[in-house]
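Reviewers asked in the last cycle whether our approach scales beyond single polypeptides. To address this, we selected a multi-component target totalling 369 residues and predicted its structure end to end. The input consisted of the following lines:
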Amino acid sequence: MRDIAFRQQVVTTLLLLLITFGLWFTAEPLFAAPAKWLAEVLLTTWLPGIVSGTISEPGALLIVTHFTDSNGAIALASTGEDGLAFRLNTRLVSYAIPFYAALLWGSRVASPFNTFAWGLFVLWACMGIGLSAMAAKDLMLVIGEPFLGAAWVAPPPVIAVSYQFSVLLMPTLAPVLLWVLQLRGSPLWTRLEAQLESSRNRE
Amino acid sequence: MSRFLFIFMACLLVLFTLELLNPVQANLIQPFTAGLAWISASVILPFDDTVISTGRILRDSVSGFAVSIEAGCNGVEASIVLIAGVLAFPASWREKLLAIVLGFMAIQSLNIVRIVSLFYLGQWNYDIFEWTHLYLWPVLIMMDVLLVFAIYLRWLSRSGETVQHA
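The resulting structure, written as structure tokens, was:
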């Protein structure tokens, strides 16, 4: 009985991945929009002297800075002059959404629409922070000292670890953690808790 | 459950930060990644003798197409997630060690399938290669981690039942 429930979860999730990835591929700008907005708010509030704004593009977010390239050196752009900009691939973080959707819709959870909506908000927050970490890495490499010397900017190793974490782990780990927490009350959760309890007693 | 999540996150952050340290990268991760490229080439060679592995690079000697196995492609991050989960879940050290060794092998086996598939997808269609590489395979590898962890939990509960019956 147990095995059937888990096998069912795996097979359903794999099948749902085809549908959710298809939807995400066709409508990524829609799914990523709240995270892009959050990244803009975070970056312009955190670094008002460095980032002047963002421009949303399909599958990407353009980060526009107050700086320009003057004969190979980074300098503040004069009034009316276009600032340096760099493009972030938003799909690198937004594929967390189809993965999460497949995991959740493949499980038997109470009030799935409500649960999914809450999960989306959490994922958008993670994605917004992830995009900010990606932007921080690019600012560190492109703008350099003016960025690293600004207030509330973490040391380079912290920026590097945050970037790696945001790109390599967050998009696949956040959906799994969220899904596990939202399973509370479901048959899978009850099983997991029982196993945790029996293992603890055995220790 | 909250204790499990706390230990899991702590182990994850420590192992992930350790993995990024230069000495660990130079002495452990890079040689391991080069080993993965060599194993992938060895898997392909009986069917296709045009493949060559040099360090972390897998190259087709005819088309000139090459893939370099970088951070995130060597399955180390996925293994770290599994190790953190196993360490956080209560069990004996022998059971944990066995789960880590076998789980690591299971993840790396699928990772070799991933590297080989990407090597051929890249020669066929670059757009599909990029999409599969960046978005689809990371999800499948994480599903593999989940599956391995679920099998470990089942094994733990079965061995627990055996102990109780004995």
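Chain A touches chain B through 36 residues (CB under 8 Å). We regard this as preliminary and will revisit it once experimental data from Aim 1 are available.
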